[in-house]
């Protein structure tokens, strides 16, 4: 039996989200015991409960020796507010777990990777059940946590460098903080959603300056780009290529990750 705990370090899910995923898990993964922490449904303004509530739930899940994996419920915003305090309370049991999520969960994945705690993994979250094709995304996540590896990002099959994957905004905000992991000699994958192209350019301006020594960068999907009042003049790939060139970072092409149901799985390391 694989025991998976779900908590929400950022924003809440609904009972309907939880029921849909529990039903899918019961039907397709009889060897999985899925426990959804009540904190996932708490609401305090934007967040899934107060900082104290979110921290306590995360620490409880991480430190439970009967749990094999912690699955983050949803992104949004909020994980950066609790990541350092939560990770500081993790004990030996926390180091034995897989931690799965993406987007805002990247603050925790980055901090865990820096602290060498557990196995951080970029991949779909419970709330992805809401997306078109979301059942496929949730199935991919549960299959990975059950031991399957067919949902991995395709380039990993031939990759010989360690790898990490982040939302571009999250990585930009991590840079220069105590949560930022060392990424020298890594292939770094980034994706983005709902940002103007000028904002993507600005993010790369900052991120590229903090990625010296990486083995290369892959660009995932940059989706739902708003239309500006004037065209930027370059698409996301051209932006990534330019900033990689400025900082002597090898640009390695596309990554099959993004804010969508096709988001593939990238274990850190």
What does this structure look like?
By secondary structure, the protein is an alpha/beta fold. The protein folds into two domains: 2-146, Murein tetrapeptidase LD-carboxypeptidase, N-terminal domain (Rossmann fold); 154-267, LD-carboxypeptidase A C-terminal domain-like (Glucose Oxidase, domain 1, 3-Layer(bba) Sandwich), CATH 3.50.30.60. It has eight helices and ten strands. It has helices at residues 15-28, 51-63, 79-87, 106-115, 134-145, 168-174, 197-208, 236-246; strands spanning 2-7, 32-36, 69-72, 98-101, 119-122, 163-167, 187-193, 216-223, 251-254, 266-267. A six-stranded mixed beta sheet has the order 2-1-3-4-5-10, sandwiched between helices. The protein has a four-stranded parallel beta sheet with strand order 6-7-8-9. α2 packs across α3 (79-87) and α6 packs parallel to α7 (197-208). The chain is globular. The model has no long low-confidence stretch (mean pLDDT 98).
Defining key terms:
269 residues; alpha/beta; Rossmann fold; Glucose Oxidase, domain 1; 2 domains; 6-stranded mixed β-sheet; 10 strands; 33% helix
